[in-house]
Amino acid sequence: MARKKAAGGAIAVVAHTHPSVTKGGAEIAAYSLYQGLKAMGAEAIFVAACLAEDIDAFRPDSRDEYALVMQRTHYDDFYTLSAGEITRELLAILQARRVRLVNFHHHINIGVNSLRALAALTKIPFFVTFHEFTAICANHGQMVTRPQRRLCAQATPTACAACFPERPPQQFLLRAQLMQAALAPAAGYIAPSRFLADRLIAWGLEREKFRVIENGLRALPTRPAAPLPHTREQPFVFGTFGQITPYKGMDLVLDALELLAELPALARRVRIRVHGGVAGQTAEFLARFDAAMEGCAFAEYVGAYANDDIFGLMAKCDYVLVPSTWWENSPVVIQEAFAAGRPVICTGIGGMAEKVVAGVAGLHVRPNDPADLVRALAEASDARVYRRLCAGLPGVTDQVAMAKAYLDVFKEAVSK
Amino acid sequence: MTTLETDLSETGQIPFRGYIDVINAARGVQGWAVDITAPGRPPALTLHVGSVTAARTIPDRARDDISAALGRKVSAGFGFDAETLRRAAGLAATPDDLVTVCIAGTEFRLGSDAPPPRVRDLNLPATDSADDWRPGQTHGIETSVDRILVVPGLGCMVEGWVLSPRKPVAGFALRIGGRVLMARADAMFRKPRADLLAAFPDAGPMLPSAGFVALFAGDMEPPDHGAPMLRVMLEGGATADFFLPGSLPRLLGHTAAAADALQFFPALAAETFFADFATAVVAAQRAALVAPVPLRLVQTPRSLIVVLPEERSDLFLAFETIAAACREDLVDGLTMVAVTDANRADAPWLLDDLLASHPVPASLLTVRHAGDAFLLLPEILRMVGAKRFCYVAAGLFPGLAALRVAAVYLRGAAKAPMFLGPQPDPFAQPDRQAFPSSRCFAWNAAAFLRWSASATDFLGGHYRDNLLARGVGGALLHPDIVAASRSLAPPPIEQAVNAALYAAAC
User: Fold this and answer.
1) Do residue A81 and residue B354 have CB atoms under 8 angstroms apart?
2) Closest CA–CA distance from residue B369 to any residue of chain A (Å)
3) Which of B313, B349, B487 shows the shortest C-beta gap to A170?
4) Domain spanning A236-391, CATH class
5) B276 and B306 within one domain
6) How does pLDDT run across A334-349, given as a tens digit for each residue?
7) CB pair distance less than 8 Å for A120 and B324
8) Does residue B378 share a domain with residue B244?
C-alpha cells in the first residue's frame, strides 16, 4: 500500500472519548477509521474528549492524538452543550495541524456548540458519523422509553416529555431545533447502518447527504475459523460478548436460562457462555446473574477478555448471541462474529436485523421474548442448520476498507 | 373643592400632594394622595394616632377631579373605613392624641380643612385594645385555626373551626402582633367539618357550620404577625379569647405564594375584596424587591439584557444562544441577570468562558427571583449605563433572526419600542398562547425610564405588554421570532391578579 501523504492538510477524526479510556463501539470505530486513514497514507489526527478525572488513562499512540480535557460539571448532556473551552481547544488544534476536513463521531462531550462554532468561524467542511440516536433521543440516544425500556419508534416532544416528566415538551422541541441547526451545515452524514440513516432522515436530516459505511474492524483473522464438528452428545455453545448490561439483553438470557431448566432434553444440547465485564451493574442484577451462572449446568461465566482475544474466544463457540433490547445500529460484535466465522442469533430489530440476514447468516429472536430465544436456541442446535448458516456469512470490512470508503465520501461531498 | 386649592404642578422639592376630605366616626377617613413625579404609582399612606402607626393603605380609587388636574387618569382616592378608624383610636395613649395621615415612610402629613382632630373629638364608640386580650372564660367553646396567610396591605386569611354549644357564634376577631382585625362580613363563610366528629362525638348538630374561612381585613407591617390570638364573639356580646400557635402565620411573598390564597378562597377572583388583594400582593412584591447585586459591572450603552433561566440545561442554551450572536458580531454590550438561588453558581464561569471566546463588554448582576428582573429593569439600566437595550426574560431564546433584528434596533435611533414576539406554542391551548410582550422587547432607556415612573407593577413582573407601548405609538413588532423552553402562560392566580390590574390601568 502506498504511503504517500495526501496534500492539503490533515483529516481530523473527532470522537467523544478515546479507546484507551473507554471501550465503546463508537470510539473503537472512530479510532479504527483514524488508523485506517493513516494506513492509507492520509495525514490524519485523532481528537478525543476526555474527562479531567480520566486523563491519566489517556494513552495516545502518537503525537497525532489529542485529548480535549473537559470538566464533568462544564457540560450539559440534555442539549449536549460543552463549555467554550472545548471549542477553543478544538479550533486551536485544527488550526495548528492545518486540518482540511473534520469527521465528528458523536457530538456528545464535544458539544453541538462546537459544530456550530466550526461552521460559523471556519471554512473547514465537516462530516458527522452517527453511532446511535443522541440527536433524536435524550435517553442516551437509545430510542428506548424510560423507565419501562420499551422500544420507541418515533420521538416527539410530547412522547419525550412522558419519558422525562421533569422536562416540558417545549424543551424537547428546542432540543430538536438546536440539533438540526447544528447538523445542517455538515457536508455529509455517515451511518454504519441503513436503519440508523433512515431514522435520522425521517427525523429531518437531508437524505442526499447520507451515506452508509459499515464499521471496519481494526484487524481481521487470517481466515474465518471452520465450523466446529458436532456429535449428538456435544452441546452447541452460544457465546455472548461485550459489556454485560440490561441494554445488551442479559436479563433476557437469564430469563431464557430459567425456561431452559424446565426443558432438560434441550438443555443437554445447549451451553451458554458469557464473556465480558459486569462493572457498573446493580447489586440486584449481579445477585441474579451470579445465581444463574452457578446454578445452571448449561451456563458459564468466562469473565472479561482482551479485545485481541476475541476471535479466538468466538471460534470456541458455535454461535454468537446478540440479544440487545435496544435497536443497536451496527454492533461491532456482529462484524467480529462474521470475521470469526460464526453465525449470529440476535434480536430481530434495527441494525441487528439489517446486518444479520435471518436464515442466512443467523437467526432472529423477538425482542424481550425469552421463550422465542429458547426456540431459536433449539432451532440452532442442529448440525445441518449450523453448517448452512456458517456457509451464509457475509464478508467483513477492515479499517483500511472503511477508511477508503470514507475518503471516497469526503471527496465526493467536498468536490460538489 | 380641595383639588383646585392644591398646586399639582411639579415645581417644589416634595413630590407628594394630598388632602383629607373627610374624617369622622361615621365615614372613617377619606381623601386623596398622589406622587406627582410618578402619578401612576400611588404612594402608600399610614394612619397615625399620636405616635402610633395604626394602619396603612394605598390609594386605589378613581378621582376624576385629580385626574383632570393632572391631565392623566390616576387612582388617587383613598379611605380608612370607620371600623379601622375606631380600632386605630383604641391604640391611643391618651384621648388627646392627634389622628393624622402621612405618606408612608415620610413625615409628609396630609392637610385638611380643619386641624387634625384629637381622638376624643371623634366620639368613637368603645373599642378593643390589643392589650385587653387574654384567655379566660371559654363559654364551652372549642376552637382551632388551621392556617393563617398574612397579606400585607390587606389583612389575614384564616381557616379554622369553632364549636360553641351554648350560644351561636356572631363573629371573629384576630389579634396579631399589635393589631386587632375584624373578620369582614362579605369575606367570611362557614362550612361543614365532618372530620371533627371523631374527636367530638356529641357535636353532630354543630358540624355543618363548624368550619370557617375569613378575611380579617387591616394592614400591618410585614414582621408584625407574632403572638396571634382568636376572639370568638357570641350572640349577646360574650367573647372568648384563644392563643394560637405562633408558627401558624405565613407571610405572602416570604413563606407563601399568591396561589396559596386559593386554598382559602378557591374562587378568589370573584370575591369582593379581590381588587384589594391584587393591589396588596403586587405591593408586597415590590416591598420585597432587593436591588440587583453586581458581580461584574461594565458600562454598555447598547446592551442586550438577558435574564438567565433557572433550569440548568436552559442556562447552557442561553449562553450558546449569546455565543452564536457574538460569532455574528451582533452583540455590542451584554448584561446577564442571574437568579441568586438558582443559577448563581454556574453563571459566573459560563460568562467567563463566553468572554474568553468573545470579549464583549459584559456585566453580570444577580436578583433574588427571575420575576424581579423586569421590576428592577430601571435600576439595571442605570447600573450598566444603557442608552438603548433589548430585554430578554428568563426562559426565552431569541434565534439569530431575532438577534439580528435586535442588533439593528440597538444600533439605530428608533424611538418607539420594538417587540420580539414568541413563536406559537404547539403544546398550549389556543387561548393560552403568549402575546408579544414585555418579556422580550427593545427600547431606548430614557423613554423606558419615563414610562416606568408611572407604570403598573404586575405580579411576576410580566403581563401582556405591561402597557409598554401605551401612548408611544408606532411600536414595532416582529412576531414568531423568539422560542420558549416552557409554557409562558402564568398560573391562574397570577393571571387573574394581573388581568385585574391591567384592566384598572387601562
Assistant:
1) no
2) 20
3) B487
4) alpha beta
5) no
6) 999 999 999 999 999 9
7) yes
8) no
Interface test with chain A among B313, B319, B360, B433, by most A beta carbons within 10 Å: B313
CATH class, range A10-216+398-415: alpha beta
Query: C-alpha distances in angstroms, B461 versus B341, B376, B437, B497?
Result: 18, 9, 11, 12
**Number of folded domains in chain B?**
3
Domain encompassing residue B464: 293-505
* Boundary-marking domain end, from B254, B287, B320: B287
Same domain, B84 and B104: yes
A395 with A202: CB under 8 angstroms?
no
State whether residue A102 is helix, strand or coil.
Answer: strand
Mean pLDDT of A346-356: 95
State yes or no: pLDDT of B2 exceeds 50.
Answer: no
> Would A10-216+398-415 and A236-391 be classified into the same CATH topology?
yes
Both B136 and B116 in a single domain?
A: no
Q: Which of B272, B287, B302 is the last residue of a domain?
A: B287
Q: How far is A83 from chain B (nearest CA, A)?
A: 7
Is B225 in contact with B247 (CB distance < 8 Å)? Answer: no
Please state whether the predicted TM-score (pTM) of the whole model is above 0.95.
Answer: no
Q: Tell whether B275 and B308 lie within a shared domain.
A: no
Q: Give B-chain residues touching A179 at CB under 8 angstroms.
A: none
Q: Listing from the earlier edge strand, what are the strands of the sheet with B239-243?
A: B239-243, B229-234, B169-176, B179-191, B211-217, B155-163, B142-151, B249-251
Contact B241, B136 (CB under 8 A): yes
As given in the structure block, the three cell numbers for residue B200 are: 367530638
Residue A344 in contact with residue A230, Cβ under 8 Å?
no
Nearest CA in chain A to B358: A84
Does B429 touch chain A if contact means CB atoms closer than 8 Å? no
For A80-133, how does the pLDDT look when each residue is reduced to its tens digit (9 = 90+)? 999 999 999 999 999 999 999 999 998 999 999 999 999 999 999 999 999 999
Contacts of B316 in chain A (CB under 8 A): 76, 79, 81
Shared domain for B266 and B354, answered yes or no, is no
